[in-house]
Amino acid sequence: MDDSIAIAPDQLVQRHAQPGMSLLAVLHAIQDELGYVPPAAVAPLARALNLSRAEVHGVITYYHHFRTQPAAQVTVQLCRAEACRSMGTEALARHIETHTGCRFDAEHQHGATVELESVYCLGQCALSPALMLNGTLHARITPQKFDAIFAAASKCVEVTA
């Protein structure tokens, strides 16, 4: 059993895998509750939904949205799709990496403070470049605006950590 979750994987799956629910719906429900889908939940999910463990694992790893470990305390998801690229997101990405000391899409360790992720469309094309910081959407991001919102998010983490 994964020691980082307070509830047994079987109980977690039993609570969320209701008759008629798709695997995607159950995975979203688990991640909404825990912030990630623990690897220990794969086998109980497979049993509950009459799927193979490989099918469940394949869906979790195919969709970039699903996590198999808790997110970092501050998570930056930067849109790197065409509209944002045309408005300078790559220069912004370099600024963010320099400012945070982290690299985009690098493996992070459990308990990491900052994680940088590339995403490919946040639906803010007319307001690009866009990013999400800890689940909050921000648009028309400049390096200065990033520095301000990142500092505010980091300050909240320091206070609550």
UniProtKB/TrEMBL annotation:
E.C. number(s) listed in UniProt: 1.2.1.2
Metal-binding recorded as keyword: yes
Superkingdom as given in the UniProt entry: Bacteria
Enzyme class: oxidoreductase
Keyword Hydrolase carried by entry: no
InterPro entries the UniProt entry points to: NADP_DH_HndA-like, NuoE-like, NuoE_N, Thioredoxin-like_sf
GO molecular function: 2 iron, 2 sulfur cluster binding; metal ion binding; oxidoreductase activity
Keywords for the protein's UniProt record, in alphabetical order: 2Fe-2S, Iron, Iron-sulfur, Metal-binding, Oxidoreductase
The protein's required cofactors: [2Fe-2S] cluster
One Pfam family from the record: 2Fe-2S_thioredx
Gene3D superfamilies: Glutaredoxin, NADH-quinone oxidoreductase subunit E
UniProt cofactor note: Binds 1 [2Fe-2S] cluster.
Record-linked SUPFAM superfamilies: Thioredoxin-like
Binding site for [2Fe-2S] cluster: 79, 84, 121, 125
Family membership noted in the UniProt record: Belongs to the complex I 24 kDa subunit family.
Name of protein: Formate dehydrogenase gamma subunit
Gene: fdhC
